Amino acid sequence: MARLAQTAGLTDVQQEILSTVRDFVDKEIIPVATELEHRDEYPQQIVDGLKELGLFGLMIPEEYGGLGESLLTYALCVEEIARGWMSVSGIINTHFIVAYMLKQHGTQEQKEHFLPRMAAGDIRGAFSMSEPGLGSDVSAITSKAVKDGDEYVLNGQKMWLTNGGTSSLVAVLVRSDEGHSPEEAAAKPHKSMTTFLVEKEPGFGEVRPGLTIPGKIDKMGYKGVDTTELIMDGLRVPADRVLGGVTGRGFYQMMDGVEVGRVNVAARGCGVAQRAFELGVQYAQQRHTFGKPIAQHQAIQFKLAEMATKVEAAHAMMVNAARKKDSGERNDLEAGMAKYLASEYCKEVVEDAFRIHGGYGFSKEYEIERLYREAPMLLIGEGTAEIQKMIIGRRLLEEYRFQG
Ligand SMILES: Cc1cc2nc3c(=O)[nH]c(=O)nc-3n(C[C@H](O)[C@H](O)[C@H](O)COP(=O)(O)OP(=O)(O)OC[C@H]3O[C@@H](n4cnc5c(N)ncnc54)[C@H](O)[C@@H]3O)c2cc1C
Predict the structure, then answer these.
(1) Count of domains forming the chain
(2) Cα–Cα distance between 311 and 309 in angstroms, integer?
(3) How far is the CA of 198 from the centre of ligand 1 (A)?
(4) Is there a single domain that holds both residue 256 and residue 184?
């Protein structure tokens, strides 16, 4: 049978990596995912397996001990992993964003200090922009850093850190209005933000003097992976832990990270949608009504046709966005479109698979129940649908400027 979501033009190395990951997903993730998710249990054994496969260093350059692979390879691996369990892709995603930001913007000393241990999965990354009062509007960040000798003192509260408890390195975006009057800082909020590389012990409670991770947020889905708050109360960070060594660049560094993160969320949408299709198409051939398998009713066949078309379209857009970034070109338009389309289609495909399951889709015994609770997260993470449409719309007006 021809499988959905094939990718043309992959190298032998890419094909080998993907087949290894797919095998791992089928054997080590799918059989245990739903049970672990219902218990909200951290998948330590799976994470250890991913470490062994080298997935934490997939895109980290070889000189720092990684595999030096492309964004496309990474996104295709994420798609496979999310097909098994979306939470596992969440465990590597923030790590990947922080490693990417270090690779692109870190000082030589910061790269040498963090990247080899990140490639081995011994240091794991989280990134933190959101606060209790803001998510979409990053320019409204209120957490603040003030210089004190060779250190900065950070105060404020952060919200929604994926891997906030299990990580040992958090890239935190705060205001640092150095060199700006309060009026200038208010007028140009993007230019007065800085990313700090904050090292900490994994775990909960006071994980470093001045830094508290209160506990896990109880979520409707996307369980297993920890999502937390982060409280900075007089947290002292050395000046050499400013990402790139210069203050005022944090907003742009974070947006660069989020842009590749969007391809990643699109890939997750593709993976979850593929799994929902697989579950729907299997169930439709097993369940009989009115004397035949429900797959033989045209209404159900049409549903399957729509689902498969959406899986193919989302995959194609995700691959296009990843390839554009790999070619060194700006990809914000393509990444925004891919993230928007893949997350919306994912929600629709999951809902159709749920409907195909009839009443059993509502039972916790069926995997689709988990997918139904997971898909909505993709509508929100790395920028909501409205934010993607704002990015897409702005770029379209740049490209199609009226010349009259
Ligand atoms: C499980 C989970 C994990 C997360 N992990 C992380 C993480 O690791 N790090 C991190 O920093 N953040 C993380 N987030 C936060 C996430 O990025 C934000 O939730 C998201 O950006 C939306 O922000 P918000 O929740 O504050 O919604 P708001 O910004 O308050 O938006 C509320 C609604 O208003 C809409 N809206 C907002 N502004 C506009 C506008 N100008 N025009 C039209 N509509 C608008 C939005 O689309 C949305 O529908 C996570 C969130 C969740 C749920």
Answers:
(1) 3
(2) 5
(3) 23
(4) no
The mean pLDDT value for 303-316 works out to 98
CA distance 136 to 156: 18
Mean pLDDT for 120-141 is 96
Q: Are residues 22 and 71 in the same domain?
A: yes
Domain residue limits at 356:
252-399
Q: Which of 67, 98, 119 is the last residue of a domain?
A: 119
Q: Please report the atom of ligand 1 found closest to the CA of residue 130.
A: 11
Mark whether 144 and 67 lie in a shared domain: no
For residues 179 and 76, membership in a common domain is answered with no
Ligand 1 is surrounded, with C-beta below 6 A, by 94, 127-130, 134-137, 160-162, 219, 222, 227, 377, 380-381, 383-384, 386-387
Instruction: Work out the average pLDDT over 70-83.
Output: 97
Alpha carbons 111 and 235: distance in angstroms, whole number:
23
Let me know whether 109 and 43 are in one domain: yes
Question: Which of 65, 140, 100 lies closest to 262, judged by CA?
Answer: 100
pTM for this one?
Answer: 0.96
Q: Of 107, 400, 139, 397, which is closest to residue 245 (Cα–Cα)?
A: 107
- Domain contains 2: no
Encoded tokens for 292: 């035949």
Indicate if 368 and 261 belong to the same structural domain: yes
Q: Is the pLDDT score of 1 beyond 80?
A: no
H-state helical runs in 25-107: 30-38, 44-53, 71-84, 86-105
**Distance from the alpha carbon of residue 205 to the mean position of ligand 1, in angstroms:** 25
Calpha distance 387→137 (Å, rounded) = 9
Pick from 236, 242, 264: which is nearest to 95 by CA?
Answer: 264
Establish if 210 belongs to a structural domain. Answer: yes
Q: Express each pLDDT in 232-252 by its tens digit.
A: 999 999 999 999 999 999 999
Of 69, 229, 369, 382, the active-site residue reads 382
What burial letters (b/e) apply to 214-250, b meaning 16+ CB within 10 Å?
eebeebebbbbbbbbbbbbeebbbeeebbbbeebbbb
| pLDDT tens per residue across span 166-219 | 999 999 999 997 766 777 777 777 889 999 999 999 999 999 999 999 999 999
> Is residue 382 flagged as an active site residue?
yes
Spatial CA neighbour of 227 closest among 42, 21, 12, 29: 42
Same domain, 233 and 129: yes
